[in-house]
Amino acid sequence: MSDTVYIRPLSFVSGPQAVDGDAVRLAGGMVYAREFAVITRQDGKITDRQIATPKTIQEIIENLPAALTEEAAAQWTNLALLHPPLELGARTIRLDQPQIMGILNVTPDSFSDGGEFLDDNDAGRAHASAMLEAGAAIIDIGGESTRPGAAATWEGDEKDRVLPAVEYCSAMGAAISVDTRRAGVLEPALEAGAHIANDVSALQYDPRTSEIAASSGCPVILMHAPGTGDDLHAGGEYDNVVFDVFDWLKARRDAAVASGISRSKIILDPGIGFGKSLADNLALINALPMFHALGQPLLLGASRKRMIGALSNEDAAHQRLGGSIALAVAGMNAGVQLLRVHDVAETVQARNVWRGLRDAALTDFSTLPQ
Predict the structure, then answer these.
(1) How far apart (Å, rounded) are the C-alpha atoms in residues 305 and 100?
(2) Which letter does DSSP use for residue 161 in this model?
């Protein structure tokens, strides 16, 4: 029999002063959680659920089955863990607030902007520059479409698409992530000036990517996808999508550490839209705060995704700005550190307003004087 435990934040407050200090600052960011569910499962079935606040949770953890107390204590510590900044070339990216990652697709068949920047370096350069000027902290360059039904890309083609974009973004002084699952693309991209490996297969597709990431010391984004071959969307069947994705990301984090990648370099992504139904995606977004219990920075990539169309009369990808902003704000409210988006200027504006509200909440004068 297999027993597992999860600590899920349930309720949130404007700041610790609102509840006499009985709240946790999630991941050292700008979101404060008040109540938590301590959930246990046995062989995939929920067996117990207790509600705690920071003042009462230690007793609940201590009374868990002995096999679960260490893991529960680690998750509780992780929920409040402050993550150090990402040092990416000349840029320092703080993780105590949401940061925006702008998408630069250099593919012929991306679901959103396929082909627009593929063979036109000037257009790609102008788009990257505009995203940086609008406030993007990182430019994420991808040379392979991973939408459902997309054909696998030959490594040589992907490299030919990605490297020029890395070079012109590097010349701007940008912090760069490369959205690839192939070592033959990642290695020359890092040499050309990229800083982050964004692997949608979580280092499973090409075994050499783990070696390259470990030897280079670059940060690595591990994304959940159920498929292990060319089709990342295959096999999306879950007992409970939230707990199953949590367990899977934990296992991939541990595998990355075992391969020589520093745990401090690992970022996790629940993989919205990859082998998941609309209900699965909604459940994951609602449960995002729980993923801080894994002790890593989180990335949310929901911009313009199919779920928005499913909830809004099948609007086309370029008509999904409102839904993309709504999901980005949901990520901010969950304490997510990195938001991967197409519409940088609009998301930065939403982030700035959100941050203003959070800052103002910390100076709320409606509480009694101390």
Answers:
(1) 17
(2) H
Catalytic residue among 182, 306, 340, 358: 340
**pTM exceeds 0.85:** yes
The reply to whether 340 belongs to the active site is yes
- How do residues 5-30 score in pLDDT, each as one tens digit? 999 999 999 999 999 999 999 999 99
For 112-131, give one letter per residue: b (16+ CB within 10 A) or e. Answer: bbbebbbeeeeebbebbeeb
Whole-number Å distance between alpha carbons of 201 and 226: 9
Beta pairing class for 299-300 and 266-269: unpaired
Q: Which of 181, 305, 351, 358 is catalytic?
A: 305
Are 139 and 102 in contact by the 8 Å Cβ rule? The answer is: yes
In angstroms, how far is CA 313 from the centroid of its own chain? 27
CA distance 66 to 282: 33
Residue 114 pLDDT grade (very low, low, confident, very high; cuts 50, 70, 90)? low
Catalytic: 250?
A: no
Angle at CA 114, nearest 5°, toward 302 and 249?
Answer: 35
Phi, psi of 46, rounded to the nearest 5 degrees: -70, 125
